[in-house]
Model the fold of this input.
Amino acid sequence: MLDVTMEMEQYDCPFIDTTVDHEVTFSTMHWQLDAAAEELETRLFVEGADRGALDNGLSALRAHENMSDYRLFTRKGDTAVIRTVIEQTDAMETIHEKGGYITGPFHIRDGEELWQVGFDDGGTADETLYALDKNNDFQVEQRRDLELDQLFDVMHNADAATALLDAARSLSKVEEKTVRRAADAGYFETPRDATLSTLADEFDVSTTAVSKNMRRGEKKVLRGLVEALEHVDEMP
Done:
């Protein structure tokens, strides 16, 4: 079996169109593709750059021509949880028809969507990717063969993986940018290649602000890691 991670840019996806025009991001909590009805039903977590961005993004999403059903579950500040039903996109249809399967979850921002797609063999993958290239822009980030023991390991540790994903998604945009940049710049190396002062200069904020964002981000990530380790420890 083959697992492919790709950055997908579709031209008929309401979520991608919305993130192109508005400062919002979407992360799927639950999703279900009904190929017979040619529909995708999702529950999504939505985050806006601010309250106004969230308002505009949700309004644009609701009015999109490919949106079949929309419901706002809850909202707090610049975040919301929604349910949507959209028409099956060209990429979804192509993958299904060629024998692939979208394993999800989706994460959409800045006009691009991160997909996990599974294939039974390399030939099916190559044929599907060739067909996708006709009407979609995408870039394969990772392509790896999954051995049987790896599949069992993934299935047995799904709760651990979920804990890590939840921790990553709980980061605010500022926290994520701070932690990412700190890691890239060598802040966590020994000796450090970056300091709070150099990071503060890059973000044009005070060292106190960088420190707070770093601590908040680290706390969320470590909390998720500890939870994941607890699930792993439970395995025989």
